[in-house]
Task: structure prediction
Amino acid sequence: MAAVDYQQQPGVKLSELWVDKRSRGVIIQIIALILLLLFIGFIVNNTINNLKLLGVETGYGFLNEPSNYDINQRPIEYSSRSSHGRAALVGILNTAIVAGAGIVLATILGFVAGVLRLSGNWLISRLVYVWVELTRNVPLLLQILLWHGIIVHSLPRPQEALSPADGFFLSNRGFSVPSPQFEPGFWAVVIALGVAVAGAIWFAGYAKRVQEQTGKHYPVFTINLALVVGLPLIVFMAMGVPLTLDWPELRGFNFRGGVTVRPEFMALWLALSFYTAAFISENVRAGIQAVSHGQTEASYALGLRPNWTMRLVILPQALRVIIPPLISQYLNLTKNSSLAIAVGYMDIVATIGGISLNQTGRALECMSIVLGLYLAFSLFISTVMNWYNKRVALVER
Amino acid sequence: MKVSRLFLGVAAASLVASAAYADTLSDVQAKGFLQCGVSTGVAGFAFTDDAGNWQGFDPAVCQAVAAAIFGDASKTKYTPTTGKTRFEALKSGEIDMLARNTTWTYSRDVDLKLSFTGINYYDGQGFMVPKGLGVSSAKELDGASVCIQTGTTTELNLADFFRTNNMSYEPVPIETNAEARQNYQAGRCDVYTTDASGLAATRATFENPADHVILPEIISKEPLGPLVRHGDDNWADLVRWTLNVLIIAEELGVTQDNVMEMAKGTDNPEINRMLGAEGSYGDMLGLPADWAVHAIKAGGNYGEIFARFIGTETDIGLERGLNELWTKGGLIYAPPFR
Amino acid sequence: MSEQTVEQKYAPGTHPSLPPPVADRGAIKWVRENLFSSPTNIVLTLLSIYLLYAIIPPLVDWMLINSVFDAGSRNECWEKGSGACWAIVVVRFDQFVYGFYPEEERWRVILAFLLLIAALVPILYDKTPFRKLGLVFSGVYPIIAYFLLWGGLGLAHVESAKFGGFMLTLTIGVTGIVASLPLGILLALGRRSDLLILRVICVCFIEFIRGVPLITLLFVASTLLNYFLPPGTYFDLLLRVLIMVTLFSAAYIAEVVRGGLQAIPKGQTEAAQALGLSYWKNMGLIILPQALKISIPGIVNTFIGLYKDTTLVVIIGLLDPIGLSQAVLADSKWQGLSTEIYVFIALFFFVSCFAMSRYSIYLEKKLETGHKR
Result:
């Protein structure tokens, strides 16, 4: 209503509206909102018009129809008679597999490299430095192709496969290893593992309480390790080894049986891990360096042994600096796994965003699924990270 | 209220702009060139020569269409498309026509709303294996690793073939023909499968073509042809009849060399109708009377184009086979020009 | 014994310093302290030496000693030497640099590149003579480069489809860097703004872009963008890619700059407001200069990332060096030489990215004004 009043008496009052900071803010926001709505309306309207002009039907119904294509790496049952939706699921799982494996290897490599980079050993720290710079400054796509080229071109064909150990074969079709076949009795081992882990968690808590009250220190790690490994092992033996191995063997063109890690997976996995590890190692280095040296000296003065100093004093503080960038590296790795398409690893972008899109022509639908999945995952991770940041921020004084 | 009115305003504004697709011929004439989608490179069918110009069996159709419209075959621009991007490029209007070894199928025609304007090559999917493997039939391929180009019908045919024959295989999906060749040669896969013409073209570029055999089984029908969007019948007619004219020209013995001579008038009324000496057939398409003369002049008739790019005289060395004229026992057949 | 005799010659406290024992000085000391100080270190050192031995000689052998630079085909290469076949790079060098850019117009690319260096110098080094004039030139450079590369003003028109190779990489990289910085700063300011709607828009935009891989955005650019535009409009793929790359990198820049903005104490803003400075003057004169200085390492890292990401355009069919390598490898004369080509391209990227990161460190040191606590 107020705005109408101003408009009735133009001139000075209207310009006052612009000079006043608050009303100017409102005006700017309204203009921004109108522009945004216009823009969205423009795009939605264009899309509708275009689709109408092309006479293309839209909708996600095609997800239930048979996909008609095969996928080489199938974590779940899938054939060319399965639906597009299931193909998408296979793609999601394949993305998860390579991202998960990549995160594990990248973390290990990254931490090792970060610590070695700070080592007093001149030679090794230089070597790691050279490796980090080489890896960081070369495009990931190139590294994936390079690994793939090396694997496919330099490893022998399956007929002349290298066999580092009985039942293990390395060729340019991949790395074939025996796969475990679970027999009915195996559930007991799984239960034993669950019990052991629960026990270990309880024991860790108990040991902490005892230590806080009495100062008595248990070798928690050793006991828990024995528990988690030992109990399932005993049950496994007691149940009469309810596990057989499926050995790979060369039959016809390829190795049959066992599990084969394909060159596409290997190339993607190695390239992703090494590339991300280079970044992680820098984060680790920065994190450790961020903890002032006085902390080490103080803890020595208190009589803590070096490995205790690292574990109880340095690392907890360093981790607070390391973990946020570490998680965003994990996120980057997951997003970078979309480069799978360059070597034909069947991830989410290659299945639903690639073959399905192409065979059905549902570009809008397929891309929205892919974008939505990545977005959901990223937002989930950033929520977790914000939560973590808040939690450690409380500790800070 | 405000918002919905806003939308209405926007809708009204952009409806004005939306009639653009309706008349592709006017659009093409207005911009002065034909934008043609081709493949990223299949020896003989579409490739860049040393000067970077697109040549080949597929671009020849585009050149004929451009010649029919402008009287000048060079008024063609090319957009290399992959199996993945080709239909989007056509549907979105980025290209005016697609001439890229594309198989005519029901769902592409009906569901994707594309119009195939004829068939310029009758193909079928085949398999190529190194001779050293000692395979003589596709039925012996159980357990093999197969390189396929993703986003093509070959991917679907392959799945069906192995399924119906109760065999297993490892698909190795690959984006382009070039990558497929590299993987096949490195031994990443035992078998390379694509259209038989593509196999022949690929094999021709190998160092020792004789070391590789193309298996006798042809597991699919792959009628390849140029295509346009649904919704502009006049444009579809133009492309369809340009291709037909090339075929009729071969049938009637009109060649690149003698077309100018024949355009002055012959004893054969069909040639006269086609080349504009009789009647006003060009008008019906919205083109000058001598449009067909230019189309034929651009690259010759169907047989000449075939011989120049993929025939037995070339490295590709394909026989006419199914692609011989119907009068000589093949399937190439065009409706009468009347 | 002898020490005692020496001792006797000097009064207590006047003995000149003796050189340290041999084992405690010079190279030996350095080696002992830096390489063999503890059992772990000895193992690590030996391991590194073995690694160097295992990698360096064969690599030098492959890259230099046994490599072949002059050959007409792969087989000729393999006859001449067992190492790398660089001949493929030599023969196709022009293609790797210019793509399909018309041969008689290539001087324009070279000129644009030289002018790029001329435009960069005044920005990068503050001691350049006539810096003010130079900065004006840097400002108009993008316009000059546009006309040089694409044609116009009397120069023959060159289609984007002819762009390729390293020149395409540089075109995308430089355009993305130049355009994304201002956009990123605006987004960061928007995200920190008091205006709710503006802030929400910026947050949504930034989070969306950062949440999805670049490659999916490029797919959107290549397949979906035409749905979003009025029917019949069309602009070329390279332009679409440039827009997407710019938006992508702007979102990341925005987050880096936001980090810088957050690090500036609120007192600065309050002081500026007390002096009566407007929002833009406050930002432009007080806050941003400080915030950007802190953000430099992050910004340069984003630029390096963008530059490396230009390789992804190959997946939607643009012929960057990797895309060209596919075309080159399709030539039966050169098949199977992927390693050579990839190493060559990797070298190019390494040199440019490493230079950028070094420059960022230099700048960081230079701008260090001694406020460090």
